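Tokens in:
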């Protein structure tokens, strides 16, 4: 992958020592089981970002002035386990540098490493998963680091909230927390899910977005598209509220499988990433020092069991 500045921003805003935001590309597609191509996702996302207007109308901001450092892609692919560990280590490295760390995959197995890193760095972590698939298998095809297992570890070690789910294996019901799972068919007829989901979140939230959470009518270029997905504005309203009410400590976006003919999905991914940054920093001046609330004294002191309903949020 060619190394360049994110979205073509000036080099002075892309330097690590100046940037508040770090972007880690992970072009990995080692365990997907249907359409291949997620390893091409980061490059397509970056190409689309370079052709995107950088003024966000809704927030009235140009968030790139906060600085975005594009690091070298994580290219470890000798095994799913090795990839996960590589992502885990590089993500943790930049959290420790007091950066707002973001990751663009690659398939969803990438998120095993990102969630592991954020869970080690931030206490009482909520993982907010937007996805068509539950991804709660303990292992699949001989590996615990398969894309079908992307959220299993999070289900055991964090406060996992799943949104947009509409495809799963029956065995995943034995792992799933039904009270914190928002199925797409229920969301379609009851808009109280937004407040309910946010009420279940702890203060620190990591967001993982599998692009197949969106309806294929607006996001066709993904490995396993599912009908009945989320649309753009309802998703933005939800994310905006999460950023307003919680401390979003980072996010990843995965499962873009670019199509050479239709670039609309690439631009949706690019716009989604930029909107999330805009929501995060809309009330912060570029000159202000960023504090990611990382505390050495709290590292590895998380509650390593599933949060209980009676926990205070």
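Residues out:
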């Amino acid at each position: 992958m060619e190394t360049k500045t994110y979205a073509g921003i000036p080099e002075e805003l892309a330097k690590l020592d100046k940037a508040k935001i770090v972007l880690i590309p992970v072009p990995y597609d080692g365990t997907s089981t249907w359409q291949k191509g997620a390893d091409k996702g980061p490059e397509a996302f970056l190409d689309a970002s370079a052709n995107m207007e950088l003024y966000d109308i809704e927030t009235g901001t140009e968030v790139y002035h906060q600085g975005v450092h594009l690091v070298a892609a994580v290219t470890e692919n000798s095994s799913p386990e090795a990839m996960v560990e590589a992502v885990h280590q590089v993500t943790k490295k930049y959290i420790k540098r007091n950066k707002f760390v973001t990751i663009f995959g690659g398939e969803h197995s990438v998120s095993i490493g990102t969630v592991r890193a954020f869970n080690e760095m931030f206490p009482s972590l909520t993982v907010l998963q937007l996805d068509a698939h539950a991804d709660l298998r303990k292992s699949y095809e001989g590996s615990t680091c398969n894309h079908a297992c992307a959220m299993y570890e999070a289900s055991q070690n964090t406060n996992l909230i799943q949104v947009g789910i509409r495809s799963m294996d029956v065995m995943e019901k034995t792992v799933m927390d039904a009270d914190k799972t928002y199925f797409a068919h229920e969301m379609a007829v009851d808009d109280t899910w937004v407040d309910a989901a946010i009420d279940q979140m702890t203060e620190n939230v990591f967001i993982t977005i599998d692009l197949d959470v969106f309806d294929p009518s607006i996001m066709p270029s993904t490995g396993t598209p599912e009908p009945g997905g989320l649309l753009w504005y309802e998703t933005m309203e939800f994310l905006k509220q999460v950023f307003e009410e919680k401390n979003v400590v980072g996010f990843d976006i995965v499962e873009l499988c670019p199509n050479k003919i239709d670039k609309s999905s690439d631009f949706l991914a690019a716009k989604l990433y930029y909107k999330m940054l805009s929501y995060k920093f809309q009330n912060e001046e570029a000159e202000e020092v960023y504090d990611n609330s990382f505390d050495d004294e709290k590292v590895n002191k998380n509650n390593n069991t599933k949060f209980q309903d009676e926990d205070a949020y």
